[in-house]
Specification:
5-stranded mixed sheet, alpha/beta, 284 residues, elongated
Length: 284
């Protein structure tokens, strides 16, 4: 239940609300809440926004937004869609929790809330992690602990920012999935990446079909191919499982008596990510 201003009006209680327990819920005028500087989400699905509008019409604002006080105003930390929905309905006030947090903590709270709700697309999530890394000098391990991910997942998400801007836009708009993007990253040049992206979009390729495209693109010309032992169905499945697990290109080359496994990496950080993923799977 939202706590009201006990007859004195919200303005008289504002100084007190800042020193209250941070779980104290107050009602703030919408006009006093400004957009958050550290909002990680840039794309807002109109269908989901309409769902929130319909819910608020029926039940009111059930979950408070989170704000902090900055220069005498209230800056939004979490609850952007609830705030937008309340404004569209013409509400004057909204329940809020006022927290006393730093810029770094404000970004962390915004990321955690959106990640837990699965509200961020992969590029928004990657950019939020990048901001924590560049502006606040957090390591991937620190970020992983705070957002409830493992380090390999954070590293893989950050790798998406190496893709050309056009492909990042495709991911944000849902034309290309994060699974496709991981496969595209196996190609070393932007030109090849864009060429593969065009095939994915034009032909509606699945992730597995995209992997086959890469195999064909990387295969040596017929006159240079060596005659060897063909891969069994079981070996192909193992190869695919390793690619999915490690998030990089993996080739298994069988021989008459022995074979070879090749694992590609693209930087020292990428190598560390792959080694960590392998070591996590080892017993003890």
């Amino acid at each position: 239940m939202v706590k009201r201003a006990l007859g004195r009006g919200l303005e008289a209680l504002i100084p007190e609300t800042i020193t209250m327990r941070e779980r104290e819920v107050v009602e703030l005028e919408l006009g006093r809440i400004r957009p958050g500087r550290y909002q990680p989400r840039t794309e807002f699905d109109q269908g989901k926004l309409q769902e929130i509008i319909d819910s608020i019409k029926e039940k009111g604002v059930v979950q408070p937004v989170i704000v902090r006080q900055v220069d005498g105003e209230f800056e939004l930390i979490a609850g952007e869609r609830r705030l937008r929905a309340a404004k569209s309905l013409g509400l004057e006030r909204i329940p809020a929790i006022v927290k006393s947090v730093s810029d770094e903590q404000a970004l962390e709270i915004a990321i955690i809330e959106n990640v837990q709700r699965e509200d961020l697309n992969p590029i928004e999530e990657a950019r939020a992690y990048q901001k924590l890394t560049e502006e606040f000098e957090q390591t991937q391990e620190e970020i992983a602990k705070k957002v409830g991910r493992n380090r390999a997942t954070v590293a893989n998400t950050l790798r998406l920012l190496r893709l050309p801007a056009e492909i990042q836009e495709d991911i944000m708009l849902g034309r290309v999935t994060a699974g496709h993007a991981k496969v595209i990253l196996m190609l070393e040049t932007a030109a090849l990446q864009k060429r593969l992206r065009d095939q994915i979009v034009a032909q509606g390729l699945s992730v597995r079909e995209t992997e086959r495209c890469i195999e064909r693109m990387k295969a040596p010309p017929a006159h240079k191919r060596k005659i060897g032992v063909s891969k069994s169905a079981d070996l192909l499945k193992i190869e695919e499982s390793l690619r999915n697990c490690l998030g990089t290109q993996v080739r298994i080359t069988p021989g008459r008596r022995k074979g070879r496994i090749e694992i590609e990496y693209y930087s020292q950080e990428d190598l560390e990510r792959i080694l960590e993923a392998i070591l996590e799977e080892l017993p003890g």
